Amino acid sequence: MASHSTEGSFALKLPVEIWRVVIISAVQSLEPMDNCHEASESLTTQFHLARRVTSKSPEYALMLVCKVLNTIAIEFFYERISVRSKGQLIALTEGLKSPRIANYMANWTRRFDFNHWRTPEYNNRDKGLLVRVLRSCPNLTHLVIDLAMHESKVGAKARDASAVIDACAKSCKRLEVLHLAFNFTTYMSAQMPLGVFLTTFRNIKTLRLGKNAKIAFPEEARVHPGELPFLHTFEACEDASLSPFTDVRLPSLSTVHFRGKHFPSYGEVPYALLGFISTHGNKLTTLTFIGVVQDYPAFAREVVPLLVGCTRLQAFVTDIIDLVPLLRFDQLVLSQLTRLELSNDSSAWPPSPSGFRATLIADLRAHFPSLEVLRWLGRVDKDVTSHNTREGLDPSEGGTDAHHANAAGIQIENRDGDKLELCQLLVQ
């Protein structure tokens, strides 16, 4: 029998490709930001890296086993970097003074998450540190900048934005996912032109704009601002974030998510969203409207024709408080829609929960004739028994829920895809 040391030596002689697969299986994790189809929850749930790599992570432990594993694991250790404090930013830039660490970051860093909004004072030195880090990562595919800047603070001026975006221009040629909560405008006359933004981030595929993410309008309205040719997913929570992109060419756009930043509380009517959907709606296959219509009947009247204009729409994500006003209009018919995802996060409930359930399936079939799946994103009453044991109940109380849903060809399921009955949906 081979000795333990012999067995270990044999294992370490395995091809690097095999060890890379082994390490990937040990450290791989699904990041919410990579899911472009789910936007029923607040944008903050997808804005930052969910898994941070630290000295307690498997990547670090593998680096300490031996030289063979160190050579492979170090690639994964530097793949994602998350900075959440001023001290971490300073430590990272100090580390860049080492040619070895600088080389690792240049070669291997793909995701950089800068979350600096908790720090009350953002100054010129902080800006310089961020710029240095960005310039040290030329192979970024994912970039998150969540930065609270106030005009009264030192450094909160247009030159800061210019320096940051200039660094991005040199480091983001391969960027695919961009998350910004950073104001590129409102600083006197020195604004960050939209054209510069489009040139810098030309290759992005997913764009998420958080709170306070604003970009200047083009100065010459007669000049077309440009395009983002590969962008397929655009998510925002503020109306103003959409305005600059209404006239931008977005040939690959297929998914738009908008969830009002104040939802479930009432917010401002997002009129800029109407203009954006009017221009780009005919490209969309997936659309999220949460906290958009709410209890504004006049606004619902304006939204209906825009939704009808989304002739390719297959998946629609919305909340009860948005859906109910829309269903009052007979003109709302989305013939291509096959999946409806419905949340119930608002504090303003339907007048009659049982009445809502009793008419829901018929309403959905009338407005969405091709609907196959109703995915319920709200709470579920797990104590309700199946329809087989509920004989004799009045239909308005859910006695024939499953029968009506099945007869209409609509499958009801929860967020995880488990089958539900209509009577299990909690709408109160």
How would you sum up the global shape?
Answer: globular
Secondary-structure class: alpha/beta
Tell me the distance between the termini. 68 Å
Major beta-sheet overview: 12 strands, parallel
**How many strand segments?**
12
Explain what the structure shows.
The protein is of the alpha/beta class and 428 residues long. The protein has a domain at 14-20 and 40-238. Helix content is 35%, strand content 13%. It is built from 16 helices and 12 strands. The chain has a 12-stranded parallel β-sheet with strand order 1-2-3-4-5-6-7-8-9-10-11-12. Helix 2 (16-27) packs across helix 5, helix 6 (86-95) crosses helix 8 (124-135) and helix 8 packs parallel to helix 9. The chain is globular, with a radius of gyration of 25 Å. This is F-box domain-containing protein. It comes from Rickenella mellea. InterPro entries: LRR_dom_sf.
What's the topology here?
Blueprint: H1 4-12, H2 16-27, H3 44-47, H4 58-63, H5 67-77, E1 80-83, H6 86-95, H7 99-108, E2 111-115, H8 124-135, E3 142-146, H9 158-171, E4 177-181, H10 194-200, E5 206-209, E6 233-236, H11 239-242, E7 255-259, H12 271-280, E8 286-290, H13 297-308, E9 315-319, H14 320-326, E10 339-343, H15 353-367, E11 373-376, H16 401-407, E12 411-413
Parallel strand pairs: 1-2, 2-3, 3-4, 4-5, 5-6, 6-7, 7-8, 8-9, 9-10, 10-11, 11-12
Helix pairs in contact: 2-5, 6-8, 8-9
TL;DR?
InterPro entries: LRR_dom_sf. The protein has a domain at 14-20 and 40-238. The chain is 35% helix and 13% strand.
Which terms summarize this structure?
428 residues; alpha/beta; twelve-stranded parallel sheet; globular; disordered N terminus
